[in-house]
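Sorry, explain these tokens?

___
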Amino acid sequence: MNRLLPFALAAAAFLPAAAGAAPIVRHVNPPPALILGGVTLPAGTEIVMLSGQLASPIDPAKTDSIAAFGDTRTQTISTFNKIKAALAKVGYSMSDIVKLTVFVAGDPKLGGKMDFAGFNDGYKQFFGTPENPNLVARSTVQVAALAGPNFLVEIEATAAKAPR
């Protein structure tokens, strides 16, 4: 039986890692940063990428103005709630998000400039909280317009789970 031990050890080297699998590494920026410097995903990480999500109207009967969807902060919160629900459908949570790409349209009330502070106010309700202490790698860019004239925010999310 001892003669089989070297063969068993050699075969084990080709099996996928189990309990000792590498974790997802979040590269933290110095405070007061709201985002990570980056994320390292180990081999075998399961990834889900969500398409861009937009806000829901405050009152579904009214969709004819920016006010019907809310300001940047309100649209950010609505959009993250949609992302939270979409992730839950596939067994993920907000704490599994590792990367966001955020598109913010200029707000006419701000002279066409994006409301970056309003976006960050909404973002901080979902990341770096007691419920979800994780931060994410993130890009936030101002765009000329989104899919509809009343949207101020669109967010793409990438979530990941380390191999078990």
User: Anything to note?
Assistant: The helical segments are 5-12, 66-69, 72-89, 116-123. The two ends are 31 Å apart (CA to CA). The CA atoms of residues 102 and 140 lie 5 Å apart. Confidence is low (pLDDT under 50) at residues 4-18.
